[in-house]
Amino acid sequence: MPLSIRTGRTRLAVAAAACAVALTTLVGCSDGGGGGGGGSATTSAASPTTGGQTQVTIDNFKFQPASLTVAPGAKITVVNNDTTTHTLTATKGASFDTGDIAPGKSATITAPSKPGAFPYDCTIHPFMTGTLTVK
User: Fold this and answer.
1) Structural domain boundaries of the chain?
2) Which end of the chain is more exposed for a tag (fewer CB within 10 A), N or C?
3) 42-134 — its CATH code?
4) 3 state SS for the chain
5) Average pLDDT for consecutive 10-residue bins of the chain (135 residues)?
């Protein structure tokens, strides 16, 4: 049974939209940088234990927990469980920045020494946000 023109055009439009989404995802999630390098973060393979340090996990394009309260100068390990590179970067000033964290890797940052609320995001995926509160 031959396809009608409407059905063929609809399938073509759906296929074109799927290709556009795939291309956008590949370009937007490339490991092309954007994480900066400010701050003193160290990168290593992800491990299930953090040796008593506070941990933020990146999974499914979300920081978990998104809101975290720590003492001044606390060490925070950021573990990337996603399939693409991410950062955890202060949005105001250069208080902290993990730089690029590849999938399956982690980085450690030091919380600011002054109390306050420090919003952060992923510089590669700015819709990923959170807040570090130092008390």
Assistant:
1) 1-30, 42-134
2) N
3) 2.60.40.420
4) CCCCHHHHHHHHHHHHHHHHHHHHHHHHCCCCCCCCCCCCCEEEECCCCCCCCEEEEEECCEEECCEEEECCCCEEEEEECCCCCECCEECCCCCCECCCECCCEEEEEECCCCCEEEEEECCCCCCCEEEEEEC
5) 44 40 37 38 37 86 97 97 97 92 98 96 98 96
